[in-house]
Predict the 3D structure of the following.
Amino acid sequence: MKQLKVAIVLLVVGGLLTTAAFFMAFYTAEVQRFGTITVTEQLDTAYPLQSVSADGFQYGRPWFSQKIFYFHVPVAEASFLVFGVAAFFAIRFLITKRREYDTKSRMAMETSLIFVVLTMITGMLWTRASWGIWWEWEPRLTTYFIMTLLMIAYFVLRNSIEDEERRATYGAVFAIIAFIDAPISFFITRLIPSSHPIVFQSGMASSNLVPFIVAQVGMLMVGYAIYTMRMGEEILYERVEAVKEALED
Amino acid sequence: MELRTKEMITSMGLYSLLTMVVYQIALSQSGSSFDPRQIAAGLLWLAFLFTSMLGLNRSLVHEQDQGCLEALLLAPVDRPVIFFAKAIGNLVFLLIVEALTIPVFAFLFLQGGGYGGSFWMIPLVLTAGSIGIAGVGTLLATMSVNTKGKDFVLTVLMVPLMYPLLLAAVSATTAAVLGGDGSVEQFWAGMGGIAGYDAIMLLAAYALYEFVIGA
């Protein structure tokens, strides 16, 4: 019960932080510029005037779709992190063979899958706005998509096994082997040419960094709350099953 | 054992031949200006992937039916040895089927196209790629054979895990088939990808097989 209280508090605080980050992203964060446009006559536009030269008037084009950065990147990083937690518990399970680690691993995997789906949705909105397409078979997108498929495969595998111990072991083995893709997906944009942007290479203004961190912390809190609540539910479920079995005997 | 070998080669070979027929349908509207060599490597690896899944599934279903796996576990050998023995068995089947498929594929689709690279490139990339397929496939098939879904589960687990390997293998094989400027670099880049995948995944499969076989 104490854990449930913590989870509810974290859910509320995390939700508030994520909402705060949302407003900060739109009101206080410095607007990144996406190139410039040059026109021959001065316009009354929302774009800031950058310079006046012989070529004409140069306006900075605000990169509005860039705002998705404050949600897409934290949620993607959270998905990698929670996937790592799932793999960690999978290893713990294989070493100790204690059932609680298997449940923890599965719950972490579920939480991570929520983040993965959110990453996919926000990512696709951004690619549509910025690249003009919904999807491209580009290294980061491809490896991340493969990671999504592997996570879904994890649940397909589990649902297809009846024996409890075997389900737990196979699930753990597959979680570990699937996790190999996560660091590859994370680092691939730094290794081979990719059209996916790498934001953190050149540093960032604090007005951009603060909402990002607030969103990241908020999302991790929400993630932890989801994980804890699902764990509580699962423990109750297992207890009910045990009672049922005892009654049958 | 003898009997099963024949059965495996026949079923896998026939399956891969049927895949060629399906390819003919897929390419039937491509017109005469289309050069099948551009996609030959992709088509070949696709056939190998699906044939290997058929073979892997069958090889382990047999064992399960006859209780061979339990017998193997009782035998006084190290469990990792069982992994390598099974993986090498699957590798040999796969290589035989590949050796049978390639001439047929070349006969059906690549006549008059010419071959760009050096001769040794194709066997090299085939072996390296097949090692990865057989190694990871053995681990996954040992799991999937104990599930309700069997072959379906194997497909769901295998295709995404095979993705990096196939991408590198298709790139290297295409370089070997087409030849030309930069093809040697592309070939070795692909081979590097395959080697990295094989090293990481075989190590993981080898370490995890003990848990799978014990469950």
